[in-house]
Amino acid sequence: MSNKFKILCLILVIAILLTSIINLNTGFLSLHLQDFFQDSQNSQIAEIRVNRVLVMLLAGISIPTSGFLMQEYFQNPLAGPDILGITSVASLSVAFYIFFSHDILLHEFLQNSFLSLAAIGGSLLLMLVLLSMSNKFQDKSYLIIFGFLVSAFAGAIVSLLQFYAENQSLKNYILWSFGANNMVSRNQIYVLSVLVLLGLFICFKSIKPLIGNSLGNSYAQSLGVNLNQLKIFIIVASSLLSASVTAFLGPILFIGIIVPHFCRLIYNPAKLWQQWILNMFLGMLIMLFFSIIAEKTQIPLNVISSVFGIPVILMMLLKQNKV
């Protein structure tokens, strides 16, 4: 492990700690240290802010890791959970759940579990379709076009559901789609943490085969890489990580594309283990930074990520065109 990588990690960890502290002190009320550790009149507000920081850390780990896996597997820097339609289909699944389950009374933990299962189920289904289509398309860039078509179709279905939805269901869906990080409860964080840890474990098992896969299918097979197993690992890990965050925070767009891109710029892109670690650290830092902006400006989180991400992706396209 090089000194450059250690210094990068140290800088990112310090920045994460500082932005976490700023997050805890950002809001309408000024809190004291005792509000976070003792019962006081502001303890509930302190708990909301702690939950906000925790969910941003989990989102910062999950979404870039999902994008990193997909970009390395498809060998395409524009591959990501939102560009390929995974986020849109997860949103559609959540929309179906919100609009058709409002009359069903369930415990909060079960509601959170079914919400995440709906998002993961939809994204898994789409990932299976994408991987089957990847065998038919000689040029894998066609998958991006296919992803845009899927996103447009999912958006049309969601609009249709919104048109016929009841007022309360429509309000719940709109609040969810804004990416309201202050509304995530501790029980939801528990469910999200389990899903993220499971996705990270599968990602850990996928890195070594991905290194072989990056050298070509024939070379990977000569190294003993099980390509079918790798495909399944990528499907499950990417879907778990992106859809679980989408279920609780709404569609956080473009983070899964731009964070891996930045990590390849600041460190050797061939070293996948280090790239994965950098993706998680930089992802946490960016999501915490977006959370501060959202609290200061009251702009929805997904709007901030889109405003930040679209120019970066445009610059990536222009750079590739010059090459």
UniProtKB/TrEMBL annotation:
GO biological process: siderophore-iron import into cell
Location within or outside the cell: Cell membrane
Keywords from the named record: Cell membrane, Membrane, Transmembrane, Transmembrane helix, Transport
InterPro entries xref list: ABC_BtuC-like (IPR037294), ABC_transptr_permease_BtuC (IPR000522)
Domain of life: Bacteria
Topology within the bilayer: Multi-pass membrane protein
Species annotation: Chryseobacterium taiwanense
Sequence similarity: Belongs to the binding-protein-dependent transport system permease family. FecCD subfamily.
GO cellular component, one term: plasma membrane
Transmembrane stretches, start-end: 7-33, 83-100, 112-131, 143-165, 189-207, 247-267, 276-293, 299-318
Lineage summary: Bacteria, Pseudomonadati, Bacteroidota, Flavobacteriia, Flavobacteriales
Name this protein carries in UniProt: ABC transporter permease
The keyword Transport belongs to this UniProt entry's keyword annotation: yes
Gene Ontology MF, one: transmembrane transporter activity
Keyword hit for Transport: yes
Gene3D superfamilies the UniProt entry points to: ABC transporter involved in vitamin B12 uptake, BtuC
Pfam families (alphabetical): FecCD
